[in-house]
Amino acid sequence: MALRVLLSTTLLSSLLSLVLFSAVAAVISGRRGRRTAVGFFHPYTNDGGGGERVLWCFVRAMQEENPDLDRAVFTVDDASPQSLAARALDRFGVKLLRPPQLGYGFSRVLQHSSMYNNDAPIAIRFLHSLRECTLPVILHPFRDLVQLLCGAVSGLHSMIDEHFGISVVEYMASAVIPIAHNSAGPKMDIALNEGGRKTGFLASNKEEYTEAILKVITMAEAERLAIAAVVRKCTQRFSEQKFFKDFKAAVQPILAPKSSS
User: Fold this and answer.
1) CB < 8 Å & 24+ apart, contacts of 92-97
2) Whole-angstrom Cα distance, residue 189 to residue 243?
3) How far is it, in rounded angstroms, from Cα 219 to Cα 165?
């Protein structure tokens, strides 16, 4: 009797072990056979911010690098894939190979108006005092911005502690001398001296901005054109081509097929 119980117990343990092993094997096999996917967590995709341009450059680079890869943009914005693809082209000049897949996993906890509100205190004061010589452009289509920049001498950027400053780079790529806030991205990464020459002006308050504006618009044309040439040349390190190349090089080891051991 004891032997029968022992054999039954042993058989049951073996069966349980076999079932457990089969389940684990199925999970592992399923994971190995699962398609690789990439998710972009970017809650705001429809507001026109500079970060959106970077997002669509990311998506475009991934579409070029691995066309069959599943990818989704997780957002809180109620917009269709087709409208976002059209907006990426219209607003930023970034043409996606196909509309993005969308996922929804965020809750909007910030008011829309708070996203860029640290631009307002300085910008409003300047627009009241300098409206006759400044042209505020808010969310214009990319083609219109390019046309406006072609005729511009200087571009104003007043956001405090901007993470990077894509609009400052856009100014410079068009040989437009930037006047930006003396903090964060513009100060640390963009408006740096190049070969002993200025590539823009930095300011922290109304007086400094006014001084910089007057300096640009009153300087001799030869000096301004010399600065503009340096400004345009130094933006090559921020070009889309370099971005695509560096981004693809960074993600390629992650997305490369794993060799079976």
Assistant:
1) 92/52, 92/53, 92/56, 92/142, 93/142, 93/143, 93/146, 94/53, 94/56, 94/57, 94/60, 95/60, 96/56, 96/59, 96/60, 96/63, 97/60, 97/63, 97/64, 97/67
2) 15
3) 25
Q: Over the Cα atoms of the chain, what is R_g?
A: 27
Among the listed residues 246, 236, 91, the one whose alpha carbon sits nearest the alpha carbon of residue 169: 236
* 12-63 pLDDT per residue, tens: 443 333 333 344 344 444 555 566 778 888 877 877 777 888 889 889 988 8
How many CB atoms lie under 10 A from the CB of residue 25?
Answer: 10
145-148, long-range: CB within 8 Å, 24+ apart, which pairs?
Answer: 145/170, 146/93, 146/174
Q: Which whole-number Å values give the CA distances from 82 to 70, 75, 230, 258, in the listed order?
A: 17, 15, 39, 33
What is the tens place of the pLDDT at every residue in 72-129?
A: 888 888 889 999 999 999 888 899 999 998 886 554 444 343 444 444 444 444 445 4
Residue from 196, 201, 143 nearest 172 by CA: 201
pTM above 0.70, yes or no: no
What does the H/E/C string look like for 148-202?
Answer: HHHCCCEEEECCCCCCCCHHHHHHHHCCCEEEEECCHHHHHHHCCCECCECCCEE
CA–CA separation, 1 and 21 (whole Å): 30
Least Cα distance to 232 among 161, 174, 183 occurs for 174
